[in-house]
């Protein structure tokens, strides 16, 4: 409310200053203050005022937000050209000048007062004081109207100011969003390090790898390599704003393989469809849902399943993750949507505003996450 009030006051102050300059210019006539009201409510001044007020707000609230900022430059340029020709045709400043010249003539020093129609001027005076009608007309072939350069200058000024205001506002919003995204990313990194790469996770993983080594399992070396790559990704590469989608998926693969070392009665289905080679994504967005599925979707007492599907089609990423809800595990959505998912929601709002859909629900005793992101 306070911001809106400040904007209204700023706009009113700006227009008062603008029209005050015009009045000061028009007041430079012999009529002085006598014609103030006449000028204020005159047709030329009303046309002048409405022309530039409408031009300002039309560009500020319609053309720039809907054409310029969405990068529809051709339509935006065409609209400005059309507005330019309208202003050039109306020539609002030229109308004010004609009004000013008319008032100067009406109050010219020494000019006699208007006479009765039947009164004849003294011999030798009428022709000198009042030239015959049409005596000052330009000769045939000479242009009657000069270019109203002042209206054009005011047009450029109003367009520039009304364009700069929303562009600067959008730039500030983008900058603020980037700062918030950076803060949220740092929070996400800390959360991931605490929730996934914590001593408990490392202890279980290393203990499983130790068991593989004791039994001389051929999977020992590959498990150590996967843990090493995952640690490197979570501590180094997630410092970037966007990472390769293949790197993110490789980290998820390694995480799932390491989790399989400690589970025996859980089926895990991880499927990737489409071309992921050239795609990028904000780091750790998908990992949170995968980690959540293993945290709540497995049980040592009953059979479990986790299904993860990622599909890339026409610049769109579709992620699906579901797991069975077990007795004794957290079932309600508010409880399942803890710090990790809340953080992901905030990052999605900052990094993909208007370009994502996140749906989290339960159906048939399954916890389901569906995420759609429009990739650039």
UniProtKB/TrEMBL annotation:
What would be an example GO MF term here?
protein histidine kinase activity
| Residue ranges constituting the Signal transduction histidine kinase internal region domain according to the UniProt record | 188-265
Q: Where is this region: Disordered?
A: 110-143
**Keyword Transmembrane among UniProt keywords:** yes
Compositionally biased region (Pro residues): 111-136
Q: Which residues cross the membrane?
A: 12-29, 41-61, 73-91, 149-168
The enzyme's E.C. designation = 2.7.13.3
Q: Which domain of life is it from?
A: Bacteria
Keyword Transmembrane appears in the UniProt entry: yes
Which keywords describe this protein according to UniProt?
Kinase, Membrane, Transferase, Transmembrane, Transmembrane helix
Q: Which Gene3D superfamilies match?
A: Histidine kinase-like ATPase, C-terminal domain
This chain belongs to which protein, by name?
A: Sensor histidine kinase
The organism that produces this protein has a lineage beginning with: Bacteria, Pseudomonadati, Bacteroidota, Chitinophagia, Chitinophagales
